[in-house]
Amino acid sequence: MVMLRLDSLALSRSRFALSPFAETLATIVQLARPAADSWHPQWHARHRVAFHDRLRTDPYARGLVGLISATKYLPDHLVVPPGGGMETTLESELAEVARVPDEAVRESLRLSVAHSWEDRQPLDWFTGRDHGARAAELFREVWDTHVAADWPARRAVLQRDVTHRAGLLAAHGWPRALHLMNRRSAWVGADAIRFSDQPGPDRVVGADGMLFVPVSARRSSWLCHAPGRPHALVYPARGTGVVGPASGGDRALARLVGAGRAVILRHLDVPATTSELAALMSQSVGTVGGHLAVLRDTGLVDRTRLGRRVLYHRTPLGDHLTDGAPEL
């Protein structure tokens, strides 16, 4: 199993970050596979055909996507830790990938092929030059075509997860904040995180600490590393950006409290700010604020201040009403 062994200062200097590039990488893996472990099944169904049509016209893109969706070791040049904290931009990450020398790309692909779970992973598509720039171009196209339109809602999901875990961190410390961050991770003792049950060398996390980077895909998780940079753990954020089709219970709840307020109650499985809810619902902050005021007056929602942020959360009554809405 792979263990992350933390320096004595590592936890105090660890923090959260966002990575549009990691979000794009998770999107590529989701669209490459038939199972929709995506942030929303309807999005997967809507985009997958166009994505595969694009791959059929480009052997390089088809080969790279085939490899990264079928290996336990993602190519190093695609898993660089984000450098801008919560404000990391896609442009900065693409520029970093584009600068990777061809020899470094070739070595990272060799390791990925060696760890592929498919019997045969050819590299006949790996021809020509400027492979870092070619990968960056593919990621830019995937972002523009399949991610950008949903990014405000996805970002709200990611920020909400960070806010939730930051609250756990403040109240209970890192072990509670990292609990169930992915399917295999677990806190071990006082200074180690089990990242994976797969064989592999331990990683030492130095005094710079770690970055914890949420993505909206429901199962995606990997480690990012680069010389002179802190390790980053990419993990699936809690919840999705879109509430699914209404069930009988959802319709009953909507008739009781109103459709907009019912959606807010569903979204508050994880505490969120007014602006995060507005982004998730594609509504104005004023509209969402009005709904929240009504829900507070009726005792279904309350709020807590965390630093500069005001988080709304369901009360026990709100939980009971939302989770216990009867099917018709």
UniProtKB/TrEMBL annotation:
Q: Gene3D superfamilies from the entry?
A: Winged helix-like DNA-binding domain superfamily/Winged helix DNA-binding domain
Which protein is depicted?
Answer: ArsR family transcriptional regulator
Species name: Kitasatospora griseola (Streptomyces griseolosporeus)
